[in-house]
Structure formats: structure tokens, C-alpha cells
Amino acid sequence: MTEHDREDGAAHVSTTLEPGEAAEAAIPELVIISGMSGAGRSTAAKCLEDLGWFVVDNLPPALIPTMVELGARSQGNVARIAVVVDVRGRQFFESLRESLADLESRQVTRRIVFLESSDEALVRRFESVRRPHPLQGDGRIVDGIAAERDLLRELRGDADLVIDTSSLNVHELRAKMDAQFAGDEEPELRATVMSFGFKYGLPVDADLVVDMRFLPNPHWVPELRPFTGLNEEVSAYVFNQPGAKEFLDRYTELLQMIAAGYRREGKRYVTIAVGCTGGKHRSVATSEKLAKRLSAAGIETVVVHRDMGRE
Fold first, then answer.
1. What is the pLDDT of residues 271-288, one digit of tens each?
2. Where would a tag sit more exposed on the chain, N or C end, judged by fewer CB atoms within 10 A?
3. pLDDT at position 13, please?
4. Residue 236 in 3-state DSSP?
């Protein structure tokens, strides 16, 4: 801890503030993501974003100190900033070096994450997407890779963390980023439970689909027909049917097992679609019950009733 740190561990920096503002402001944690084109910069940035970082992609290096100052003014709302730097020219690199020197002069702590990969892996990736390397010009992909590697040599030497992605898939790269930046907390999984009616079509963004049409339809009970699955009487009718409560118990257990696997694989969002004929009774009642079970299991859950009210 330096003389600019408080006893509670929060670093501070003097910024150019307007009269009447506090003379000191908390410095956001700063990570600069750079490296070879095609080595996984976007995946690394998305991982930090999912972990709650404020991510800025392709920010001009000269604006990095300004970004830090704005974060310091946010009164803790922007506590962690990740900047993706795409170095594609000598002048651009010089600007980055000046910004890093500026941060150092202000005693701002920053970490540089450098994404590396072999020439063979990079060539394979560019060829698979049929895109040229940004620095190859009229030459070959390998020429662009060589030019970029030479340009980034000094930055790589200054990096705090170098990750070689030559043999890593997306999930493995995310796991490495989680290990470095998630701390002791397990990465969160966010779930959307969506009720829908099969007669209106399957949700295109569903990861998992369950069909509640094996239960009797409240639509055919005259006193229940006008209501929806949000009504207590409709919900009681649905879950008093044989197999309904057992299904909810078993499916919740299955989802907890799937959620653990999603976390291991770096998946952060899941949409669970619960369907019935019209999306009014059975699917709505089940979605509400299921969402409460998932929330109780520690999964951040929201409920969406896509087709309720369409009849």
C-alpha cells in the first residue's frame, strides 16, 4: 500500500475536479487487454464484462487516463475498468506508451493482459473466418502476423499476464480469465424463465424447452378459463394434478446440475422456455414456481410471460 492508499485499502488519486468537488477520488481498478489479432481479445473482454467490469472496446490509448478520471468521479459506480487496445500502427503504439507513462506518474495501478497465439493457430483462425489480417496489406496473413508481433514486442514484455491461446477453446480461455479475475466468488449464472404458447411458436432464444401439456388444461374448467397462471386458484389446480409437484422437484434438481456445468463451461446466461398450448395457464404457473426454486438455489432469475394476454 502506498501513501495514496487509505487504511481501508481503497487507493486514491488527485484528479482535475471542479471547484467544490472532493480533492480526491477513488481510483477504479484498471486492466488493459491487448495482444495478437485473433488471439481472443474479445472473448477475454466479454469474460470481464460478465464478471461486472466496465469494458470499453478499442478505446484510443490517449483517452485511457481520461477514462480512469471519469471512473474516479463516479463515486464508486465504476470501480473496475477494462480497456481493449487494438494496436495497429506505430503512432498508435506511441500513444499507448504515453498513456501508460501518464498513469504511472499518477500512481494508478494497472494490469496488462496480453493474448498470445502461435502463427499456425492465428493463420488457421483467419482462414476459417475468411478475413484478412488487419496489418497484412497486399501481403499474406503471415506477413500481417509478423508485423503485428514486431509492433507488440515491447508491450508483451511489459504485460502482467500473458495467456497463450494456441490450444485453448473459448471455454478454456474464459476459465483462465475467471481464475485471474473472479476472485473467490463463483461466476454468477443468470437465468430467464419464459412461459410461452406452442401455438405461437417456440422462442428462438431458448436454451432449454419443457412442455407442460402433459397436465390437464385449466382452459376447459369454466371458472378458471378467464384467469391466468398468476392466479392462485389456477396455480393450485395445476399443481394438484398427478405428477405436477414431482415434475417440479425433479426438473429443479436437473437444472441445478445443468447450472453447475454451465458455470464450469463459462456460460453465464440461460433461457428456460416453459410451454403449454396458449401460454396462459400451465406454463405461467410453472414458470413462476420454477423461478422461485432457482432463486432459492442462488441463481439470479427473471420471469417473462411471452404470450400471456395474446388470446
1. 899 999 999 999 999 999
2. N
3. 36
4. helix
